[in-house]
Design brief:
Elements lengths: L4 H8 L5 E8 L6 E7 L14 E15 L2 E13 L9 E3 L14 H13 L4 H8 L3 H18 L9 E12 L4 E10 L4 E7 L3 H9 L3 H5 L3 E4 L3 H10 L4 E4 L1 H24 L8 H4 L1 H5 L7 H14 L4 H14 L6 H15 L6 H12 L1 H5 L1 H4 L4 H16 L6 H12 L14
Parallel strand pairs: 2-4, 6-9, 9-10
Antiparallel strand pairs: 1-2, 3-4, 4-5, 6-7, 7-8
Helix pairs in contact: 2-3, 2-4, 3-4, 4-18, 5-7, 8-12, 8-14, 13-14, 17-18
Bound molecules: zinc ion.
The site of zinc ion has 8 residues, from loops.
Length: 432
Amino acid sequence: METDPTRMCELLVGLGEVDLVGIDDGGEGTPLVVVIRSRRPRPTCDACGGWVWSKGYRTVVLVDLPAFGRPVRLRWRKRRWMCPNTDCEVSSFVEQDPTIGPARALLTSRAARWATVQVGKLGRPVQEVAAELGCDWHTVNQEVVRWGEALLEADGDRVGAVEAVGVDETLFVKRGRWRTKQWATSVVDVGGRQLLDMVPGRTAKGVEDWFSSQPGGWLEGILWAVLDLSGPYRSAYDRVLPNAAQVADPFHVIRLANQRLDEVRRRVQNETLGHRGRKGDPLYGVRRLLTAASERISDGGRTRLRGLLDAGDPHGEVRTAWHAKETVRGIYGIDSTTDALSYTLQLADDLQDESCPPEINRLGRTIARWTPQIANWHISKVTNGPTEALNNLIKRIKRTAFGFRNFANYRIRALLYAGKPNWDLLATVTPH
Ligand SMILES: [Zn+2]
């Protein structure tokens, strides 16, 4: 039994109007059990407003913050009340005190707020926080999601004016026997580097629904709408942000050129050697040099590149594809916006020439379809870079959480970590 008054006082700080009934100390290796009782006055009936009678206690046990280097359990003796009014729909009820812990809580409010900051804001693994509290993973995860949801709900000013918005897909989960991929779309303020929301799926409908539910004035303030080369996102933007100029993300444009180049390399490899690339094959040895940015290849690398292409690319198709990729990269070296547009138009045309491999013709057709969006980068200079960076943060969350099955939980965790909520509000909210 703990009797030192200073230490007892420490255990009760922040719990509000409570009486310490006692302390149960089972010794090292067991949680310290603090028994308390609320000092709140006798309530009236919620339903009829009448006088209520005492009907004893119901005890709940909550995980509390550690004290003196040991996990703590709060054993709360809740008063039970009954309404004697026979016409009233309420027969009995249990006292509530959200200062200690809201209804159906697993953690005390102070422990839940602490855990929400550790996991939600700092991105610490749930398991680690649970170990400090001396409880299991699910208890912490459930409470972080619950309190995080309350914080996000209360934070009505979280999303401010946005000038440039970006959408990008993230893998949400691989589900079921066939590890079917389920996708989510992140909506990002690319200027403010803030995750605005997560939308299930990667369809036009999901993105449209999200934007449609935003205030009209907010939508009108958006000047730029960044996207990868995705048809669904484009048609969503066409409908919900008709006045915003669309910008194709440079990273995705260059990545597409690299993908086509890689397809040519693999096809030529197969056609010349009759098998998939392996160690010792010239086109296999050259694969990383091909997709590297040309200005970053050393003189030695350049000589090697030329030698391997001479050996493995008899009709010069890989070479053509490599030039195509470098020319696509050249779009982003142009200073003038008008030059960029005409360069891109010409490029789309050139790549569709019959002298080019079919994969590169296909790249040309894609660029032709996206010319205005590609050239708009030169005016806006906005990219999905911040979106990608946020997606990496989200991936980190997923790793520490062993993946999420429940999209709503995933969304809340992502928003807590990358959505910049006002953490000052956490002290003022209570989940319902
Ligand atoms: Zn009543």
